[in-house]
Amino acid sequence: MHPDATYLARQYYTALDHHGYEMLRNLLEPEFVQHRGDMTLTGREEFVSFMRDDRPQKDTRHVIERYIQSKSDDEIVVRGHLEDRDGDELFVFLDRFRARDGKLSELKTFVKSSTAN
Fold first, then answer.
1. For FRET with 27, which of 43, 86, 97, 100 sits at 20 to 30 Å CA-CA?
2. Helix (H), strand (E), coil (C) string for the chain
3. Sign of CA dihedral 64, 66, 70, 72
4. Would residue 116 count as lying in a domain?
5. What is the CATH number for 58?
6. What is the pLDDT of residues 26-37, one digit of tens each?
7. Per-block average pLDDT, block size 10, for the chain (117 residues)?
């Protein structure tokens, strides 16, 4: 039995917050794609490379407020916010993950600027 989307999403945030890029790579299908308002990252290697080398802030922490699992185990929506190293909220996010055969296959990210900024 493959891990469900909730488990994979939890591991995804752990990998990002702890700079576990090999762990992140292992969670994603080779054809993984992320859609977000400002760009689309296509393929596991492009995504991992961006997260490791090109994202604007790497010393951050995802604070999860809610996981909403679909009736099937292959989709989850996650609501939370991203904090910088000082604990200041950078933005609120809503991530929709799709999983297939025990790996994350797609991520659609929606963000809203923090009201604290």
1. 86
2. CCCCHHHHHHHHHHHHHCCCHHHHHHHEEEEEEEEECCEEEECHHHHHHHHHHHCCCCCCEEEEEEEEECCCCCEEEEEEEEECCCCCEEEEEEEEEEEECCEEEEEEEEEEECCCC
3. positive
4. no
5. 3.10.450.50
6. 999 999 999 999
7. 85 97 98 95 98 92 94 90 95 96 96 70
Instruction: Compute the distance between CA of residue 91 and CA of residue 25 in angstroms, rounded to an integer.
Output: 25
Domain-embedded: residue 30: yes
Q: CA torsion 39→44→50→52, rounded to 10°?
A: 150
How many domains in the chain?
A: 1
pTM of the predicted model, to two decimals?
0.91
List the domain range (segments joined by +) for residue 46.
Answer: 5-111
